[in-house]
Amino acid sequence: MVMLLAVAAGMIVANLYYAQTLVGQISASTGLAPGAAGLVVTLTQVGYCIGLLFIVPLGDRLENRRMIVTGVLFTSAALAVAALAHSATAFLLAALGIGLGAVVAQVLVPFAAHLAPEASRGEIVGKVVSGLLLGIMISRPLASLVADYGGWHAVFAGAAVALAGLAAVLHHKLPQRVPSAGLRYPQLIKSLWALFATTPVLRRRSAYHAALFGAFSLFWTTAPMILQQPQYHLSQVGIALFALVGMAGAVASPVAGRLADSGHTRIATGVALLLGVAGFVLPLLAPASRTVSLVLMVAASIVLDMGVAANLVLGQRAIYALGAEVRSRLNGIYFALFFAGGAAGSSLGGWVYATHGAAGAMAAGLAFCVMGLAYWLTERSPE
């Protein structure tokens, strides 16, 4: 069951990132103006953020298996529309739908926490989050490789078929879970602000991960552009392989979960933030040598991904301990807040790289991690 949930989370969330390496092809094919090409990715993220705030909370009210299967089928349909799209309007509407449907990945993770025994909840959530992070990390190189051979339409067509099959498996294998919360939908949404305002752990964990995810998004927005420069001169396939190597960082998720289960959340959070710092210090130390610089970039991608993977699990373990009846709402708020940090990192990264080059971009990413670490130093040790 843990393996199924991990694979499902990765397959679902990967759909948010397929378009990132295909923006140029999609905008040219659909007639989207160069100045509006960013909408290919932005609308997917907009749909996801809307879903986090207005769909994920329903996981505390609706039967979870039916909600998950319905969301996966909806995402499959949106992917099929994207695969068949030949106009910008059709593709952008499909992109919005993909983001809305993919939020069921954030119903799956609290679902795993519900099924897990208390003593091993962090470790099991960590394993499921490993699958989610692997989906994020493999999506970009996979999309690039498939598009090289079959065009960008094939990427979305294949994903649509894969999710339709996943929906059938989940319907057959997942147990039913009927939440105890009896709130009506308006009350459910209204309760989000109250939960945020009255839950210090949620606010703190969201701030930590907004800083790290902002740095992560900045790194992976600028790294492909940096690696195409004469110093590295990597091809599209080389960049895809670089991204695949960075996936090694996902191994930190279950380790972080076990540390959280053992009561070491605070110190593990500090280590995760320090890994983020290291992920940007290493490229700044890179010498003129192409080989050494590339090795340092690879090492930076791995340690940064380890920090992000570990901190995500530590945050989820902390907020899931606050009660089963509010897990989906807490998870929705948590993800919405740190995705805002990711959006800030992505947009800032492109601008800083264009104006200040690779060193400026790495320094900006370092600043995100240092801010998170400085805030961590204000956390009091638990008695």
TrEMBL record:
Residues 1-382 form the Major facilitator superfamily (MFS) profile domain. Keywords: Membrane, Transmembrane, Transmembrane helix. PROSITE patterns: MFS. Coiled coil: none annotated. InterPro entries: MFS (IPR011701), MFS_dom (IPR020846), MFS_trans_sf (IPR036259). The chain crosses the membrane at residues 31-55, 67-85, 91-112, 124-143, 149-170, 207-227, 233-255, 267-286, 292-314, 334-353, 359-378. It holds the Pfam family MFS_1. SUPFAM superfamilies: MFS general substrate transporter (SSF103473). This is MFS transporter. It comes from Massilia terrae. The lineage of its organism: Bacteria, Pseudomonadati, Pseudomonadota, Betaproteobacteria, Burkholderiales.
